[in-house]
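Sample pair:
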Amino acid sequence: MTGALLHPDRLFPAEPGTRAIARRLYEGVKDLPIVSPHGHTDPRWYAENQPFPDPASLFVVPDHYLFRMLYSQGIPLEALGVPRQDGGAVETDPRKIWRLLADHWHLFRGTPSRLWLEYVFQEVFGIDQRLAPDTADALYDEIAAALQQPDFLPRALFERFRIEVIATTDSPLDDLAHHRRIAESGWQGRVVTAFRPDPVVDPEYEGFADNVARLGELTGEDTATWIGYLAALAARRRVFIGHGCTSSDHGHPTATTRDLGRAECEQLFAKALAGNTTAAEADAFRGQMLTEMARMSLDDGLVMQLHPGSFRNHNKHVFARFGRDKGADIPSRTDFVRALKPLLDRYGNEPNLTLILFMLDETTLGRELAPLAGHYPILRLGPPWWFFDSPDGMMRFRRLTTETAGFYNTVGFNDDTRAFLSIPARHDMARRVDCAYLAELVADHRLDEDEARALAVDLAYRLVKRAYRLDG
């Protein structure tokens, strides 16, 4: 649908001839199914299939992309309904929260968040008015009414969005009850889990020792010992695989890997359980666990994902008051060449292991990541992530990596979102940008258009299924 909010040629090249090529390429991919191999949507939505509560709870309260911008302009998170750790008072009137977003909508001019939300307004709800103080109530009422209709239940939207498969991201301590309920319901939507072991492999994660003890209770292993701890992790991986899991995900501050002897591992593990590791020792332990996870992946086939380079919870006051994932995670410099070498020395040439690398340090793309992925068989490059999940970030990624790593050492698109309704918007953006880049190569006579057509389909659909082993 073409309406007042979105131009049909958005994100395509301005030069008319190149734009025409991009249009043709886009026509071949715009309606392909969505494969979403890693994200943070709540499996409860698909298990219970209940209406989303209201526009503010759906769009504002859980979305750190939105409330971090508003917070940066002096708006308290309490005023946006973000729950406090201590259960203290926050705004509970969803209409007031929505009006606050509308009053500050100008802050999002030129941002991906604006493109995503306006796509949702137009394509999902049929709205052709811009959000503003004088339209806030009318748009709220229109969205709120739609959310009560059967066509806007989570499973109906899943099917409407043409989602072929989606992976949620879950802790090893999660009982996966919602995934069991989905499987038992008879619904044909494919919702799988991804194994995110951070709470039990990061000594600096709050409650680490208690988490490891809980891991032992779940598996019947003695997680006070190094061998029992590893056996418990392998056991939980098997449970996840039984629920359709094809990947593990690792959100480490750095890309450090280690390949230590058993005695050193046991000493580090004991210090971690005692809560007295130094920062360097905690980093070394996380690095050793990446190598251990690679070893386990060779046994059970899980694809590894590494998301390093974020200084998590940088604002200590926000963290103390509101907890994790509240918009205060900041990109930091990241070394990959030296940091990954211990793992690559051990497993880098394995043909049956895949490690997908994500980055928040763009300076590493051409200098480190593309050359590494262009050589080591186990390495693939994940798409631009988080702060660079944007039109310009996606285009920079292609320009900086293609000449060294090509297209087939990348893995297509990964929306990595908590915002369910933004998934088609994000995939549409990625498809448009890739078609724009391919159109430039065709216009420059570096690529024939038939090759570009095949590449566009690979980037939108085939590569992600292959990389995450979701193709059968």
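Residues 279-300 form the longest helix (22 residues).
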